[in-house]
Specification:
Layout: H1 7-14, E1 19-29, E2 35-41, E3 44-50, E4 59-65, E5 74-79, E6 84-90, E7 95-103, E8 109-115, E9 124-129, E10 134-141, E11 144-153, E12 159-165, E13 174-179, E14 184-191, E15 194-203, E16 209-215, E17 224-229, E18 234-241, E19 244-253, E20 258-264, E21 273-278, E22 283-290, E23 293-303, E24 308-318, E25 323-329, E26 335-337, E27 341-343, E28 345-350, E29 355-357, E30 363-366, E31 372-374, E32 379-382, E33 386-394, E34 397-406, E35 412-417, E36 422-425, E37 429-431, E38 434-438, E39 443-445, E40 451-454, E41 459-461, E42 466-469, E43 473-481, E44 484-493, E45 499-504, E46 508-512, E47 516-517, E48 521-525, E49 529-532, E50 538-541, E51 547-551, E52 560-563, E53 567-575, E54 578-587, E55 594-598, E56 607-611, E57 624-625, E58 627-628, E59 633-637, E60 645-650, E61 660-662, E62 666-668, E63 675-676, E64 688-692, E65 696-698, E66 704-711, E67 714-719, H2 724-727, E68 729-731, E69 735-739, E70 748-756, E71 761-770, H3 792-800, E72 803-807, H4 834-846, E73 851-854, E74 858-859, H5 865-869, E75 875-879, ...
Parallel strand pairs: 26-34, 36-44, 46-54, 55-62, 65-71, 72-73, 72-81, 73-76, 76-77, 77-78, 78-79, 80-81
Antiparallel strand pairs: 1-2, 1-24, 2-3, 4-5, 5-6, 6-7, 8-9, 9-10, 10-11, 12-13, 13-14, 14-15, 16-17, 17-18, 18-19, 20-21, 21-22, 22-23, 25-28, 27-32, 28-29, 30-33, 31-32, 33-34, 35-38, 37-42, 38-39, 40-43, 41-42, 43-44, 45-48, 47-52, 48-49, 50-53, 51-52, 53-54, 55-59, 56-57, 56-60, 58-59, ...
């Protein structure tokens, strides 16, 4: 065998259970022609004998390998003068037959390698012609050539075969080539004697670097690359996985006079070892290897003179030893908690009485992937409670063991009432909402074991928390659970009050950009008098780019107004017909985001645990230390740019607050509320200093830039050792310093800070350590090791929670007058750009979206209508200058991320404009321009898909015409996206870690399944747009585009369930459909309503929108809202399909929806109908976000008919009833309590509760509406 994976590894793949009897090295005397064989074992030569002397020195050993499949390597000879080729067939220790092969007179042909290139168990011969560059293969059976075939042509003589070995464990040897001039390294993956994949491995510059061997050094049945620097002596191992480098390890630095003579398995552990020779002394030395690690090192005990050359390493196999059994070693415990792991081992038994722990080729599998994951080493890690069976399989034998994972117990930590106070009239009822809190941060809504009481008999309360107002009174009602309690005030009046006046508490408000204000408003009633922030008050602001309403008041809690940009906006509070106005000024930030805690008596210290707090990273419990102000107060400063955080204060010794939401600088003084800073009685502040980042690590020799903060004094800093107060340099707040430049890997530097106010000095210190940079190169995609979220279920939950807002870039918003196409399909201004999207992000966020999808923004290199769409690009790695710059795109992505929104680009991986330049990593597109060809284009589009995640941190892709790409190519592209996203997550990044991909396959469910999702056992895509459900929905509430087709409109509500049933039997189990109403290729939903005969000035036009969005809000899976649909947009004077010359007026059905964007406060001011619909959609998105049963839940259909449709959505113990009325009249609907559980339901849209009556819930559902009822 010549330069390929070990025979042990090679044959173990094809023959069940062989072990190996020996490894020998063959030496040839270059003067006398004498040949000598040393039989090796571990470090020693256990036998030494002559081996058939050949005195004609023109005979050269050209290679070695097992040419007749008998388990012993043979020796290939070639005559340098006559071109005769000869083979010695051996038993590993002596020649058993000597046979002529043939004669190749052209001496420019040389043997470049030996390996089994067709998987028949016999090694073959690889030839290369030094002049023409032709490469040829002889398929061998002993001395007979069974096949002679052309492989390929490489004309550049600098390309040399560096070695042969099985890189992908498919039983067929592959070829590794190196170009010493360019440093490029390449792999040919071979099957049946032909190249099935040609791919660059990497680039290693410098002719001093040589590939010494292509062998399996770690026993994984995959050949690795052994490198040596002939100048420095550095020796490295590339652990391979196909054409990818999975690991780079340093073997050692061995002086240059030592040469690697041989690599082969000398201790029969299935791993190749290294034999060294000192060229000065002739001494032999042995390394026994385990990957790049040297497991043992020792002398061979021989010196070989320089007239001897090692010409072959011969492996011998004992074919009589076979596997006979496999047993799993009982683990120490078969039970563990979720999050823990159980290590499994198995023993293989052989026919000669020997055994091996975890033998090569052992495969582990577990039957319940939702309960635990198992890796190749047999480590089983629990992800959910349950029992599963894990099986070990090897050489046809298997054994199983049952394992159990149990839930981690949590303890109650608090109880709180989440609604109220209540203002009731006699006879009214109200449901008190509550939740029990647990120490892991989770909670349970309305715990059944809670007990209730009221202080006055004028108010009674049931065991489930339903208040009944019996007489006029002002009192409180309390609830208790697990030793914790909370109370709520209840005001009961004799008769309804009439609102007579509304007054905002102040005439002017101000705050910093990024912060929020909570203006109180008092409504004066005829009976109750003044009531602060009563139910029914709504706020609006005239310029949402400056100030936007983040949340409306709810029962005593004031509205929250978000300050987006510097300026002044007038905000109006309205109750019924009463209004009042306040001017709100948003100022540029001038101070840090600071929080204070008044330490309760008995607390041991001050710590803060915070999460969901970008830009600050989430802390690990119990969190970070706070700085003391005095004996009672502590303070903590967040990084610059902080606007809010979720917080738990604690003392690090068991005492803690409840969960707090700090939406502005402020303090906690006990209880469950957050107090704004203006209302905190903070003691005189001492100097405070901090550095961002704090103690941490960094990569690169340029050091790390750190931002220093100082308040209430003069700041000084010192890098290194000493006294910062005495010897430090003065700095100002937010000043940046660079430190650590020039440090070696592993070295650290200290940063010392001092704050001095003239009366008091405070100090702090931080340490920064330089670490080694990750090995991921610019063009390298990490090896696929699973999705970024740990399990398929976790990934599914992430994807199902998506609420995506789609924009057509060229038609959306004109934010930069110097950019834009000025032409395009549809009726828009055609001047949309990236700046317009940036300006619209606050509006999109206010809608409740958590993601945005852009149509393509890559460089189309033109100015036509088609170029403006972005769907026929010229350069996938540039931003189209008509849309913006690279910096604009980065600002857009970063701004969206700062608002908590994902960003998805549009990937067109099946067609392009033509003349596509070579990618930055040297990949090209193959085939035509529409469609391209695969697998030739695969590496190019894998690079595109990972490039933008790597460079801008985008979160995934919408995939245009996904049917143009084969399923197996989608698997590789998806795995590449998931791998780079997982790498980003492992590097501590918050964004660019989602890895979501959704395919557009505009067809029925059967085609979507066959062209997109693939099989459940080997998924292609996980998500695709749900066109079948979309068409079902428009057929019920509006009409489809082809209105003349049978069933195009007027379908009954029950049609929706029929569509779900049809799809449920078609899609694979891993499918995560994404539902939309419209997109840039479809007719807008509003125009379809008009096409079905319902005009825009009719109330049903808006009702059908509300009903459709309610259905979307109840959909299990991600949803996508097309810009403008949320305000009921439509194209004026367009309803019926334009049949003639539609493109000349922009009214073709496939582009008519590309209208100019109407964004409130950016490009327009909404009218009352538009604003009402937009606010309703935002309310639905909030309900969907709060109640995960809607986006994540299992759907149980409870019934449907001509007018109504009823589902139960269930998830993690939460049950929500969804009722849709598609008729224009009110409809009664009854739901049996036995079908849904509970005794009361809460109306999530309108508020209030409904109790069960005679075993059922009875609802009256208004026409064209969707209702959501939380079961309790």
């Amino acid at each position: 065998m010549f330069g390929r994976a070990l025979v042990a590894t090679m044959i173990a793949t094809a023959i069940a259970g062989p072990t190996y009897a020996g490894s020998s090295v063959l030496w040839r005397n270059t003067t006398t022609g004498q040949n000598w064989l040393y039989q090796m074992e571990n470090h020693s030569a256990v036998d030494s004998r002559p081996f058939s002397q050949v005195t004609d020195m023109d005979w050269k050993v050209a290679g070695y390998g097992d040419f007749n499949g008998d388990g012993s390597d043979d020796v290939l000879w070639r005559h340098a003068g006559f071109g005769i080729n000869w083979v010695y067939l051996t038993d590993g220790t002596k020649v058993v037959d000597s046979l002529r092969i043939n004669e190749v007179n052209d001496l420019n042909w040389s043997v470049a390698g030996v390996g089994d290139f067709n998987g028949d168990g016999n090694d073959d011969i690889l030839w290369r012609h030094a002049i023409s560059g032709d490469n040829w293969i002889y398929h061998m059976q002993g001395s007979a050539i069974t096949g002679s075939k052309f492989l390929n042509k490489i004309a550049d003589p600098d390309w040399k075969v560096a070695g042969v070995g099985d890189l992908n464990s498919d039983g067929t040897d592959d070829i590794v080539l190196r170009n010493a001039s360019t440093g490029l390294n390449w792999a040919y993956l071979i099957q049946n004697g032909a190249i099935v994949q040609s791919k660059q491995i990497n680039q290693v510059s410098g002719s001093q670097w040589v590939v010494e061997a292509v062998n399996d050094f770690n026993g994984d049945a995959i050949a690795d690359l052994l490198w040596r620097n002939t100048s420095t002596g550095d020796t490295y191992l590339y652990t391979m996985s196909g054409t990818n480098i999975s690991k780079v390890g340093l073997v050692g630095r061995v002086p240059a006079q030592w040469h690697i003579e041989s690599t082969g398995d000398r201790n029969m552990d299935g791993k190749s070892d290294i034999l060294w020779r000192n060229t000065d002394s002739g001494v032999l030395w042995s390394y026994l290897m385990n990957g790049s690690a040297i497991s043992d090192s020792g002398p061979v005990g021989l010196s070989v003179g320089n007239t001897w050359s090692l010409v072959a390493t011969l492996m011998t196999q004992d074919m009589t030893i076979q596997p006979i059994d496999l047993e799993i070693t009982p683990p120490g415990s078969t039970q563990a908690s979720v999050g823990q792991c159980i290590d499994l081992d198995a023993t293989g038994f052989f026919s000669n009485g020997t055994q091996q722990n975890n033998p090569s080729g052992l495969i582990w599998q577990c039957n319940e992937i939702g309960i635990a994951n198992v890796n190749a080493a047999g480590q089983v890690c629990g992800t959910a409670a349950g029992t599963l069976s894990c099986t070990a399989a090897w050489q046809g034998f298997q054994d199983s063991v049952s394992l159990t994972f149990t839930s981690i117990p949590v303890e109650p930590s608090g109880f709180e009432i989440t609604n109220g106070p209540f203002s009731l009239t006699v006879g009214d009822t109200a449901q008190v909402q509550s939740r029990g809190l647990f120490d892991d941060g989770s909670n349970t809504a309305n715990p059944q074991s809670a007990t209730w009481s009221c202080a006055s008999s004028s108010v009674s309360i049931s065991s489930s928390g339903v208040i009944t107002a019996n007489a006029a009174v002002q009192t409180t009602c309390s609830g208790s659970w697990e030793g914790f309690s909370d109370s709520v005030s209840v005001a009961v009046s004799q008769q309804p009050d009439t609102a007579i006046e509304i007054a905002i508490a102040t005439t002017a408000l101000s705050g910093e950009v990024g912060s929020s204000v909570t203006p109180g408003v008092t409504v004066t009633f005829s009976q109750a008098g003044d009531v602060l922030n009563p139910d029914g008050v709504t706020w609006t602001c005239n310029d949402i780019t400056v100030v936007a309403v983040e949340s409306q008041p709810t029962a005593g809690t004031p509205a929250t107004l978000r300050l987006n940009n510097a300026g002044v906006a007038n905000c109006t509070a309205k109750y019924e017909t009463l209004t009042d106005i306040v001017a709100v000024t948003a100022n540029e930030p001038v101070s840090d985001f600071v929080v204070y805690m008044q330490k309760p008596a008995g607390w041991a210290g001050c710590k803060i645990h915070h999460w969901e707090s970008p830009p600050a990273a989430n802390t690990l419990w119990p969190g970070n230390d706070m700085d003391p102000l005095d004996d009672n107060w502590c303070v903590y400063t967040f990084p610059e740019g902080q606007t809010e955080s979720k917080i738990v204060f604690n003392d690090g010794a068991g005492q803690q607050s409840g969960n707090l939401v700090a939406d502005q600088p402020g303090c906690w003084t006990g209880g469950a509320t957050w107090t704004p800073l203006s209302s905190c009685n903070i003691p005189a502040d001492t100097p405070r200093v901090s550095a961002n980042p704090g103690t941490s690590s960094f990569v690169g020799d340029a050091g790390l830039t750190v931002t220093l903060s100082i308040s209430n004094g003069v700041g000084k800093y010192l890098i290194g050792n000493g006294d910062a107060c005495a010897a430090g340099q003065t700095y100002t707040n937010n000043q940046q310093v660079t430190l650590g430049d020039g440090l070696n890997i592993g070295e650290s530097v200290d940063l010392l800070l001092c704050g001095d106010d003239g009366a008091l000095q405070v100090t702090d210190s931080y340490t920064y350590t330089r670490i080694e940079q990750g090995n991921l190169g610019q063009c390298e995609i990490p090896a696929y090791t699973g999705n970024p979220h740990g399990s398929e279920q976790a990934m599914k939950e992430k994807f199902q929670d998506l609420r995506i807002y789609q924009v057509m870039v060229e038609s959306f918003i004109d934010g930069d007058p110097n950019r834009g196409y000025g032409t395009g399909y549809g009726s828009s201004h055609h001047n949309g750009d990236i700046r317009g999207i940036i300006n619209s992000l606050p509006y999109i966020k206010s809608l409740g979206a958590n993601a945005i999808w852009l149509t393509p923004i890559f460089n189309s290199d033109g100015g036509s209508q088609l170029d403006a769409t972005g769907y026929f690009t010229r350069n996938y790695f540039e931003i189209d200058p008509k849309f913006g710059s690279w910096e604009d795109a980065k600002e857009m992505v970063d701004t969206a991320h700062s608002m908590g929104m994902y960003v998805f680009f549009d990937g067109v991986f099946g067609h392009h404009k033509g003349n596509i330049p070579t990618s930055p990593c040297g990949n090209n597109v193959t085939g035509g321009n529409d469609p391209v060809s695969y697998p030739g284009s695969l590496d190019f589009y894998k690079e595109v898909a990972t490039f933008w995640i790597r460079e801008l941190g985008i979160d995934g892709w919408r995939l245009d015409q996904a049917y143009q790409v084969p399923l197996d190519a989608w698997i590789e592209i998806r795995q590449a996206v998931e791998s780079i996203s997982k790498y980003n997550k492992q590097q501590g990044k918050q964004w660019g870690t989602l890895g979501y991909m959704v395919g557009e396959i505009w067809d029925g469910e059967g085609v979507i399944q066959s062209k997109g999702y693939g099989s459940a056992s080997n998924p292609s895509l996980y998500s695709a747009f749900d066109f079948p459900i979309r068409y079902g929905l428009v057929q019920v509430l509006a009409g489809q585009e082809h209105i003349g087709d049978a069933g195009a409109s007027g379908r009954p509500a029950s049609w929706l369930n029929e569509k779900f049933v049809s799809i449920g039997g078609t899609y694979a189990s891993h499918a995560i459909p994404n539902l939309m109403l419209s997109n840039h290729d479809l007719v807008r939903f509003g125009d379809l309503i008009e096409r079905a005969g319902y005009p825009r000035d009719d109330w049903t036009y808006w009702g059908r929108h509300r009903a459709a969005f309610a259905f979307m809000a109840a959909f299990t899976g991600p949803i996508t809202i097309y810009y403008g649909d949320e305000i009921g947009d439509e194209v004026p004077n367009f309803a019926q399909k334009v049949e003639s010359n539609c493109w000349t007026v922009g009214l073709c059905d496939d582009h008519v929806s590309r209208t100019s964007g109407l964004i409130d406060g950016v490009s327009t001011s909404l009218n009352n109908e538009q604003r009402a619909l937009k606010d309703y959609v935002a309310q639905l998105m909030d309900i969907r976000d709060t109640h995960r049963a809607l986006s994540q839940g299992e759907r149980t259909h409870l019934g449907s008919n001509e007018a109504t449709y009823v589902d139960l959505k269930s998830y993690n113990g939460e049950n929500v009833i969804f009722v849709l009325n598609v008729s224009t009249n009110d409809q009664p609907v009854s739901v049996d309590t036995a079908d849904v559980g509970g005794t009361t339901v809460v109306d999530l849209v309108n508020g209030g509760t409904i109790s069960a009556n005679a075993g059922s819930f009875d609802f009256n559902i208004p026409g064209l509406s969707g209702q959501f009822f939380l079961v309790q």
